[in-house]
Amino acid sequence: MTQKSVEFYNGNTIPALGLGTFRVENNDECTEAVKHAIISGYRHIDTAQTYHNEEKVGQGIKEGLEVSGLNRKDLFVTTKLWMSDYGSENVQDAYEASLKRLGLEYVDLYLIHWPGQDEHLIAETWKAMEQLYNDGKVKNIGVSNFHVHHLESLLQVASIKPVINQIECHPYLTQKELRTYLEAQKIVAQSWSPLMNGQILEDETVKTIADELGKTPAQIIIRWNIDESIVVIPKSVTPSRIEENLNVFDFELTSEQLSRLNALNKDGRIGPDPETFTGN
């Protein structure tokens, strides 16, 4: 199965599909899910400080690499800085604490998790992220849940542009304006919770297109992301679904099918609105 990668403006690449671990408990089920994903062919694992599962994600990475015979460099690992550790004096310690929990010497991508309400604090935090990057401690740095105005504020003070913005994105929330801005800035778009906790899988249009192509609704949504040039990280702890979610590289959606899916947009969120979210 030939997987697809997306290139960052700095020349590094990220696999177009990864395993998300949001709301996965820090237990053996988490370890087994990550391990199974790697054995099944995933090369991209996403976690975060605030998911409180970095230890078991790291254990799954360790076991998955051992069983599959891969090296660390074959895998792309993302984690994220939580809002309680924003500020120049906290970033390095928080990053090193994440590395310790993961059992890794570096991650491939480190993200500011939410923009919050204080752009000066974000600017200060980003400078510390840039320092990690310049010191060679992390391969890439980016942001998550940033709207256009958050990015414009950041870019006024940044020496290094974020390589990616991880956002809630699915056919009910296509984020077209934001994605157009990201494309112009050469910042990659990545979607979290692409399956809307399963809600979108019941949509009649999605089910019809799945029937047309002999695929599952989940595969249609994942492929929509890939065909729209969005890096996607569906979450599952079920081995069969982990495999199903990866089995999306043997077909493409037609432009007409993509149009039907894009027409489902209703600007509907299942997660917090970055405009008002404070982390509490």
TrEMBL record:
Residues holding substrate: H113
GO molecular function: oxidoreductase activity, acting on the CH-OH group of donors, NAD or NADP as acceptor
Sequence ranges assigned to domain NADP-dependent oxidoreductase in this UniProt record: 17-265
The keyword Protein biosynthesis is annotated on this UniProt entry: no
Residues under site feature: Lowers pKa of active site Tyr: K80
Active site: Y51
Gene3D superfamilies to which the protein is assigned, alphabetical: NADP-dependent oxidoreductase domain
Signal peptide: none
Keywords: NADP, Oxidoreductase
Enzyme Commission (EC) number: 1.1.1.-
Family membership noted in the UniProt record: Belongs to the aldo/keto reductase family.
PANTHER family, alphabetized: 2,5-DIKETO-D-GLUCONIC ACID REDUCTASE, NADP-DEPENDENT OXIDOREDUCTASE DOMAIN-CONTAINING PROTEIN
Protein name: Aldo/keto reductase family protein
Gene giving rise to this polypeptide: yvgN_1
